[in-house]
Specification:
Layout: E1 20-22, E2 33-38, H1 48-61, E3 70-75, H2 78-90, E4 93-99, H3 104-112, E5 116-120, H4 132-142, E6 147-148, H5 155-163, H6 165-172, E7 179-183, H7 188-200, E8 205-211, H8 216-222, E9 254-258, H9 260-274, H10 280-294, E10 303-308, H11 322-327
The structure holds 4'-deoxy-4'-aminopyridoxal-5'-phosphate.
């Protein structure tokens, strides 16, 4: 007789349905109530599990994937990890073209998950044959029966969030959400989530977080793609040097830019104050909230949902390394706390 065992059939059943967690200490001096959708609770530790699973299962429904087929993608790391994890469970090969800006941790992690990884130079234009977009396209053409996820230009990216992240937040807040603040990279998270939420209540304010060195904010405000806006920055996964079609600029009310330095310190502060070990862009989104508060965006009735896209373990050699922080000059300012000294006991 079959015994009743309360187990998941596999990891994929755990994608999505992440918790919404009230921010207590980090938001204590801000007007309003602040809640984080903590995407590090996904089995692949980021929001990218949602889009990877949705796009792969859509390709299966369309008959594009068979056992042993190859899945190809460009990725700053998180999408790659999710695709590699899903490929293991479903029996596909996974090839990833990543930017040289990605942390060594992320690249090692992808290789540990069985992916074939190509590291491409970060500071070349998107149409350069060496860019990770062009490398992925070429690999797709050369690999028979492969699919290219193409998250920046794939409408299924935001659709995944329209069908999962949006409804989850609406239910978790019982419809009382007033603001959504989220990072924009491909724009899939903010666009899909905002579209769903604005269909429920068009008055919800949606604010996208962009990086200095990225074109998104200026494009949103003026319609101009200004290459003069482009210069290197350190935050991974946020902002862009091109305009992704996965971004629906119409559902985003405003973009706000944050610095590498303040975002790094804010991520470390979230870990220390809330006990939530979050990634670099979670620091960016919280830094944006602080700037928005100074601009008078919130009042005591505001119920602000921020999206924390991934887990801090991906950044041990970056923002959670005092050496890295010091090498960037991030401890030079008078206003920042000195790193704790390590004591070696005899
Ligand atoms: N944060 C991190 C760490 C990411 O990897 C990404 C994805 N590039 C984002 C934020 C932004 O999410 P989206 O691509 O959905 O805009």
């Amino acid at each position: 007789m079959e015994q009743k065992i309360n187990a998941c059939n596999n990891l994929l059943e755990l994608v999505g349905n992440t918790p919404l967690i009230k921010l207590n200490k980090i938001a204590a001096n801000l007007e309003g109530n602040f809640y984080a959708k903590v995407e590090g609770f996904n089995p692949g530790h980021s929001s990218k599990d949602r889009i990877a699973l949705y796009i792969i299962e859509e390709a299966e429904r369309r008959g594009l994937l068979k056992k042993g087929s190859t899945i190809i993608e460009t990725t700053s790391g998180n999408t790659g990890f999710s695709i590699a994890m899903i490929s293991i469970i479903k029996g596909y090969d996974c090839i990833l073209a990543v930017s040289s800006k990605s942390s060594k941790d992320k690249i090692d992690m992808l290789r540990s998950m069985g992916a074939k990884v190509y590291v491409c130079p970060a500071h070349v234009s998107a149409d350069d044959p060496r860019s990770y977009y062009e490398v992925a396209k070429r690999l797709h053409e050369e690999t028979e029966g492969s699919i290219y996820i193409n998250q920046y230009f794939n409408a299924l990216n935001s659709e995944a969030h329209y069908k999962s992240t949006g409804p989850e937040i609406w239910q978790q807040t019982n419809g009382h959400i007033t603001h959504l603040v989220a990072c924009s990279g491909t724009g899939g998270t903010i666009s899909g989530t905002a579209k769903y939420l604005k269909e429920q209540n068009p008055n919800i304010r949606v604010i996208g977080v962009d990086a200095f060195g990225s074109v998104l904010k200026k494009y949103h405000e003026t319609g101009e793609f200004d290459t003069k806006e482009i210069y290197p920055y350190r935050i991974e996964g946020l902002g862009k040097n091109l305009i992704p079609t996965a971004t629906n600029f119409e559902v985003i009310d405003e973009f706000i830019k944050v610095t590498d330095e303040e975002s790094a310190h804010t991520a470390r502060e979230i870990s220390r104050t809330e006990g939530l070990f979050v990634g670099y862009t979670s620091g960016a989104v919280m830094q944006a909230v602080r700037q928005l508060e100074e601009m008078g965006e919130f009042n005591e009735d505001s119920n602000v949902v921020v999206i924390f896209p991934d887990h801090g373990s991906r950044y041990m050699s970056k923002i959670y390394s005092d050496q890295w922080m010091s090498d960037q000059g991030f401890f030079d300012s008078k206003n920042v706390e000195e790193p704790q000294k390590i004591e070696f006991l005899k």
